[in-house]
């Protein structure tokens, strides 16, 4: 289906918005009136710019409070409409949106509304324009889609149809099934937005908190299904008012937006995406660092052994049980200090996984490979993390990344761990986008978002996982742009016995994050422990959580650059990540830093 | 009255919070449990730190879901309480807050609640601790203050009283008058918070959007009046959960917080603040600039004449009618480029105005004066703008700032303007604080806040004015911290005839901000104009607005540094600032800048 986006959904000048929409693959745009008014380009120039960019101008919405008003007022509205229809002819837009009136002048008279809309449609028709009438959720007398449709039906004008908007319909809790009673040919336009499920004033909700389909809590796909069953064949068009998107760069937002429509089309059975290939494990995590020494010391103390070195690049492989860490000291590492740069995901079909990612607009990474390297498929996540699709030693038909490495002499690792989860810091404005990316591209399941109180602001965190928990990625974000660099990424290692692992780490010279005594005093008030158990935790800085499914014990290493490690011992039934201990961890990390 | 603040209201580590509260003048603190748990200081050390800072520890709230639970659960709760009471003895806190239960285990049985609270109070009494029971607005069975009080009354234990919280009472729309039925001695604590009037889920509203009294929409003073009439003599304590305050620097937030309590006490008649002295006009606006030339050229083109020079400092006075601009090229100007640094306000009693400002915690500015300078009273606003209280040529008894200036030869100014309004950019996290400051310190009235769509994010703006509109200050803020430097301050000059003024400005070589033709095309659709009128506006970049009170015509100069001028012609009945034209102006200003 054709895809479109309202320019109000993107940040920047009109030309920046158009460029971003085109590059992201949209077929058309709705031009928001304020964007046109503020543009130095004339309507004709905007039309030409759109044509150059391969965009149609699918909708314009220059008028408010048109219908069901006293006659003299309607006369002024028609006068205004004529101006706008002339403009639309220049702009090359053939559909005008008319939202139900919110004016105190509006009269509760469907007959009058129908008659005036009919007159408006007659004028529009002279300009080759169609009028799409839409119920605003907070319309004064018309606030539901079926009411708007009854008025359109009563008017009976060929140039008058209805526009459906998923936000206005779903925010009111209207049953979208009735959409199927509208003839598809009379649905002139379909605007789509999702929103988080907030119990708040609908106008504020609509103006500030809309998001792209799949990022919120509405069943947008269900609604679109009803619309498609009417025979509607117009565009799927995004109209999203969102305070964060207004500030974010238009380019990435447009990509996220278009991805949401691709996923939506898949959900309603009209897209042609390669099927998801859910990863089955973590093959490796890759750290980049300008200085291998502190990282090597940390890995060594954690029980990793350096087992191999890349044949042509300055990359070491460290292993411990099933956990593998690559340490890359190549040129890419020089810029940002030590960080978590890439994740290898075990994939049942690496090629197919990459094809789906590419179809969902993930940048495919060029591999600057040596001739003998294994041809690994990799894409970039929205936060820049590189995702490699791997088949580690599973199938002689598939390339194994380890073939690029030459074993080096080493002692066997001293412990057996695997990667429990990885925690990535997302750009401030891409929290919901990141979850949608990981869900749609990787086929992971997104858990609930949780707020975590950092001493210097609230953080949010949401985990995406596969069904058996062998892939768990926690996506975290600060409360404001400045926090992007405030918080560290981390790698959590699942161990059999966290007490033993912590002791071994410390004995090997590793530094554990000190946890305040007050925290363990509180544990004593909350739980009963075996003799000495709490003292053990206290001595090692082990934190403790418990839910209906079991117990979670964990501790943290000191931070190197922007990365630290966590040691976790997880009862199989425990589903969380110790979020309730995170404020104590964050405060301890801040306390260990130079003064702010 | 004694003032207190919950540590959760401030950003940072516990010791940062305590220091900020003490410096801002609070008498005590409520220690939030998470702050204690995350602190490396033991409870005894925290007590000592508080004592050093002159702070009492007025409240601790370590327990949830205590009452009306099955007996075995209550046994665990008592066990936990004993731990916490021991801690409180170390901490030197003698009042514990118990919020009504939100647990699914809680039983709807007031008798059971009273009996268990009584048992808890008996245990507390052994430790010299009082229990203050408070109804959470979202409590499972107890959600109103009168219900909580009935349970306390039924329990009848001397160590059990109630805690009132303005948010929980006013967010539910409860009538606070019934507070007067509670004996003051049984009100063990009073927590205060305001909040913007949002129609949203009360839990989310409470956790993220509380603000200090006077910053929101609740009648907190009215509630406090009821409480004081009971004879309550405990502290006024702020407990504010706010996402923005969590990120803002603790020092300024604590000052804003304490100011809000001073204003609140004045409102309920228990404070001793000097009375407000409302300014009666704008004496001058002061620009600082490292390079006087572009500013001088701009002022000259606007019709200002350089009339005088400061006797001892590199400051020029420019005049035009009643409008006076100081241009300061002194050392302070070197850092930030050209900006609006100070405002002179005509004050009926400058000394008294300064005394009130100082009593309300505005920093009094030291004047590095030459011996002969007039002793001007001045304070700093939260955004750093210097506010001078002036008596320009009004009273021979009062110092006149112009005496510091020596006239220089000049032609008379070519036009007659006055300052219509000044627009200041506020730090991101101080929007509500700025309004409260200007209201309370200067006695100005705050108008409604409006959202303005900038191409790169939403801005908010709110004007503070005196009754006759001779002082109008628009306080603007961006949507995120990064926007602080994105938007310019401006000085709006009221002129008799904006068309003539714009033409004269241009004829004198001044550069007007170009406004897109699309904007004027839209005016043609919305209004009918006399022949040629619209073409005149189009040619000069004049914008047009109209409300029930009249018409507003305005245009803008190009920006110099971070400052531009606006020329405005305002019908006397028009109360606004052309906010609906602001998006076009902002887009035009962005378009005139180097690419982002």
Helix and strand composition category of chain A: alpha/beta
Tell how many strands the DSSP assignment of chain A holds.
Answer: 25
Q: What best-fitting shape of chain A do the alpha-carbon axes yield?
A: elongated
Look at the structure and name the CATH superfamily of the largest domain in chain A: Divalent-metal-dependent TIM barrel enzymes
Enzyme class (chains A, B): lyase
Function (chains A, B): Catalyzes the conversion of 3-dehydroshikimate to protocatechuate (3,4-dihydroxybenzoate), a common intermediate of quinate and shikimate degradation pathways.
Catalytic activity (chains A, B): 3-dehydroshikimate = 3,4-dihydroxybenzoate + H2O
Keywords (chains A, B): Lyase, Metal-binding
Question: What order do the helices and strands come in, and which of them pair?
Answer:
Two copies of one chain form a homodimer.
Chain A: E1 3-6, H1 14-23, E2 28-31, H2 33-37, H3 43-52, E3 56-63, H4 71-91, E4 95-99, H5 110-126, E5 130-134, H6 145-155, E6 160-165, H7 166-171, E7 187-192, H8 202-209, H9 220-229, E8 236-238, H10 243-247, H11 250-267, E9 281-288, H12 292-301, E10 305-310, E11 315-320, E12 323-328, E13 339-346, H13 350-359, E14 377-380, E15 386-390, E16 405-407, E17 418-425, H14 431-442, E18 445-446, E19 450-454, E20 457-465, E21 472-477, E22 489-494, H15 498-507, H16 517-526, H17 533-540, E23 543-547, E24 550-556, E25 563-570, H18 582-591
Parallel strand pairs in A: 1-2, 1-8, 2-3, 3-4, 4-5, 5-6, 6-7, 7-8, 9-12, 13-15, 17-21, 22-25
Antiparallel strand pairs in A: 9-13, 10-11, 10-16, 11-12, 14-15, 17-22, 18-20, 19-20, 20-21, 23-24, 24-25
